[in-house]
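[Automated response] Your request has been received and processed.

Submitted sequence:
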Amino acid sequence: MLTKREEQLFHELSSWEQDLMADHRSDFVRTYHHWIEQRMNEVPVALRKKVAEKVDQAFFYIHSIIQNSDWLMESRKRLLNNARLYSENISSIQDLKTLSIDHLHYLAEMEVSKHRLYSLLQGAATGTGGAFFLGLDLPSQLVINLRAVQMIAMSYGNEVNAPYEMMLALKVFHASFMPPHLKYEAWVDLKKEITEPFENPYFYYGSDQLANEQTIENLIKQIMKLFVMKMLKKKKVQNIPIFSVALGAGINYQMTKACTTYAHKFYQYRLLLERKKDFT
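Generated structure:
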C-alpha cells in the first residue's frame, strides 16, 4: 500500500482532477471560444492539416535540439547531484524513483521555479519591443516550456531520451496548452497512455500526431500578443516600455505556470500509480 503521505497526495490529485473536469468558463469566454471554433471551421481542412503537420515537425525538431544540447546534459548532471543529497545510491535518472515522494516533489519544484523565472525574464525581454526579441518569443517559449516538461519528467525518474518517454513528454507538453475546458479530456487520454501496457520503451506504438485546431489557436494568440506588445512599445515611462514589458512577462509567466503545473501533476500521478500497482 501507499504511505500515508502518498495517500494524501493521491487524494489531492483526485481533487485537482475533479476541478479540472469542471467547466469554469464565463458566458463571455464560452462565446469567444464558440466564435474561434467557427472561424477555424472556415479554414479549409487541407490547410489546417498542413499547418498541424508543420507544427508537429517543429515540436519534434525542438525536442531533438534540446535532447542533443549540452544544456540538457548539464541539467541532468545537476539533477543527479541534487538527488544524491538524499541518497548516495543514485547513479541514473531511473534511480530517482527510489526516493521519497516529498524529495521528488522538491526536486521537481526546483525545476518548476527555475523555468517560470526563465519565462518571466524572456517575456520581459520580448516586451522591450526589439525586433530580435519579438522574433525569438515564440520559439523561446516552446523551448522553455518543453524543457520544463522534460526536467519534471526526469525529476520523477523518467529518462526522456527513450521514444516512449519522448512522445509522452510531448503529449503532456501539448495537453498543458489546451484551453482549460479541454484539459480534462487530454488528461484522460494521458492516463490511458500510462495504464495501457507497452512492450518496449524504445518503441512507441501510439499515434504521433500532436497538433490540432487548439494548437493553431494558441499560436494565433501568441502572434496577436506580439502585435499588441509592439503597439504598447510606444507608451513609455522614463523611456522604458513598461506596459509592453509587463504584458510580455505576465503572459509568458502564466503560460509556463499552466504548463509546469499540469506536467507536475501528471508525473506525480504517474509515480503514485506505479507505486500503488507495486502493492496490488
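Summary generated for your ticket: Residues 21 and 184 are 5 Å apart (CA to CA). DSSP finds ten helices and no strands in the chain.
If you did not submit this request, please reply to this message.
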